[in-house]
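Students often ask why we bother encoding 3D structure as a string. The short answer is that it lets us treat folding as translation between two languages. Here is a chain of 190 residues written in the first language.
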Amino acid sequence: MNILFDLFLTFAKIGLFTFGGGYAMIALIENSCVEKKQWITHDEMMNVTVIAESTPGPIAINCATFVGYKQKGLAGAAAATVGMVLPSFCIIFFISMFLDNFLEIAWIAHAFMGIRLAVGILILDAAIKMIRKMQKKAVPLAIMCCAFIAMLLIDLFALRVSSIALMLIAAVISLSIFLMKRNAGKEGAA
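And here it is in the second language, the structure alphabet:
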């Protein structure tokens, strides 16, 4: 099968059958691209998730673009990105054209309540898979636990903390640890 068409079709399926945004799609992207197609490794998936989260744009689209680019350059990136975006665009376009009060329809409102639960489960599934496959070293585990506790406290106390500030703090901490390890290695070699 033509790789460009395969990229388009794979990401179109993910985009068509996943509700809840990019975080809900991570589990499906990993299943398709890492386990089934083996287009990228698990470590690359973890790295692209982190990079996609910290760059502008939706996380799922950034992941699709990376996988497509890795497989077939710019043409692959375009095919995967269009495949990810096109189903959602068509669905929203159709809804806006024909259904003015879409969420006021009782059975649709109830369906979306169930979808919210499924989205939460998909996000939790992606997080559990990443944690299981993460290297079990003290520093990454400590950073993960601190980030989890900080996010939980921010949510419980309804604090207004910018996600950009949290990412910058995490970047400074990680960079500081890297520099301390590098300096310790240089002093040990000298």
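Translate back mentally: The two ends are 56 Å apart (CA to CA). Keep this in mind for the problem set.
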